[in-house]
Write a structure and sequence with these properties.
This protein is mainly α. Helix content is 67%, strand content 0%. It has six helices and no strands. The longest helix is centred in the N-terminal third of the chain and has 21 residues. It is extended, with a radius of gyration of 18 Å.
Length: 112
């Protein structure tokens, strides 16, 4: 829609104007802190053999790659990816996961 596109284009200009758009950074910050709390709770109760959700799987992969300095599996990426999945919408996420699983089933060597 035009409003979010306009906001993205003029964010530095718009932050000086009054309006509902000033709430966006605060709301995103609150959502990110909610996700950070959830990540901490998952990390405290993590059982390596029984991942419960995406966060657990990401945390397990972070542990596997903790010695790799160029790894993209870090807390910031976990929080931002979870936030993206939260906003992406059910249909988009399910379609993407379905396509990813199809590719993995067709190419088992990729699973490594």
């Amino acid at each position: 829609t035009p409003r979010p596109q306009f906001y993205d284009m003029g964010e530095t200009f718009l932050k000086h104007l009054p309006g509902p758009h000033t709430k966006i950074p605060r709301l995103l910050g609150r959502m990110r802190s909610f996700i950070a709390r959830r990540v901490r709770r998952n990390a405290e109760t993590l059982e390596p053999g029984l991942p419960r959700d995406f966060i657990d799987c990401f945390l397990l992969q972070m542990e596997k790659e903790k010695d790799n300095p160029s790894s993209e599996f870090n807390l910031e990426n976990l929080e931002l990816t979870t936030l993206n999945l939260f906003f992406a919408g059910t249909e988009t996420v399910s379609s993407t996961l379905r396509y990813g699983f199809l590719l993995l089933m067709k190419n088992p060597a990729v699973q490594g």
